[in-house]
Fold this sequence. Notes:
Helices cover 29% and strands 29% of the residues. It is built from 14 helices and 20 strands. A hairpin with a 2-residue loop joins strand 16 (428-431) and strand 17. It starts with a strand and ends with a strand.
Amino acid sequence: MSIWFCHLQTDWLTIRKPTLRGVPFVLAAPERGRMCIASVNIDAHRMGVEEGMVVADVRALFPDMEVLEVERGRGPKLLEAIAEWCIRYSPVVAIDAADGLILDISGCTHLWGGERNYLLEILTKFKKAGYHVRAAIADTVGTAWASARFGKDADIIKSGGELEALLTWPPVALRLDRVVLDRMQKLGFYQIKDFVQIPRSVLRRRFGQSLLDRMAQALGEVEEALLPIQPLEPYQERLPCLEPIRTAVGIGLALEKLLEMVCERLSKESKGLRRAVFRGYRMDGKKQEIVIGTNQPVRHVKHLFKLFELKIATMRPGLGIELFILEAPVVEDLSSEQETLWNLAQGADHQAISNLLDRVGVRVGMDAIHRYLPAEHYWPERSIKQASSFKEKATTAWRNDLKRPVNLLGTPHRIEVTAPIPDYPPMVFRYKGHVHQVRKADGPERIEQEWWQEQGLHRDYYCVEDERGARYWIFRSGNYGEDDPKWFIHGFFA
């Protein structure tokens, strides 16, 4: 089965940006010092725009044509992802040039009720997703490829009917080189039937062996090998048991063995796991599962075993576990230099903190652990950001020239105050139903809104201390007499 994506990249872009639906647009890329059309969408194609045309010429003909720059490498990645998805229909899927796929469907179609249902099922899936596709089925790769592009849509060529199907199609249907096609054009060979009966020796002298090879492949005289994609294998190891395992010691031994196998592979590929899942399949068909996460990539067996060990007691073996599986669904790059931190003194403190966080995360959940870094903003809500990992470094230093609370609220809370005006701190404020008498205060510190991000009133911040010695960071939004000022509490000092 040959599948042809008529407008692969533009269809993908339209799916991602629905506003482009129904709008003629093209993707352009630099070629020999000028911008040329690399891909067109269905609307631009209907207007006569073709791949290879110069952008300046297209704009002269269609001034309103939308021209976008093509993303280098997007096409092959997209086609490879689609090919992996198609493995559900056939175990042998090969990428065909830049816009097609070839599936070896031998022994697969009966699962969908025959070739016709099989073909329509795949076409319907892609068309519902938003792709313009054509497909065909034949006994040979060459004939299926030609039928998908030059025959009837969703055509199925019967066995032995390859030659009859090819006769009325142009020579390009044989996947010939441009040089050979130009030579045939000059000689008046506009259809395959114009030269298919010419002796092979004559064709070889005129057009070379490649023409004969392509004809033989299309007619099934020569077998054409496919190069199927090899999807990335998950980081997974399996350990079947000769006898069911019912004890914690046995589960621990199986886990340690699987960790050694997974970490050995990670080491060869310079990777470290960030998340691991340990599963045990019981004899009664039920599954037991343990999940751990780490703050940074790890492939240290002893450390990972300690993280799992905290949860082994939660596994219920029942009548016994007959299969163990360890999988690492999330991995990251980990160089050998980083791995040596386990053995170097200067990295001991850093690694000890990471190990401690991993153990805490196993007990309370990784979502309960957060690390914050300073951000280059004056507005307090934007002055910090959450770190994506333990290794992320700060791009700016923490401010220590001004007083800042230890606990900063994500959203300021409204409070009621009694305060002299215009620029004095409050004497009394009410927060969550409790009245606080202010004994000491420092301020104001004015912080203006960042106008390039959001418009709003300025804030005058005060550090205040109540009668119990607790200290708060409060502010007034706006000025008395000019605005409608309101008071808020924004943080708590130690």
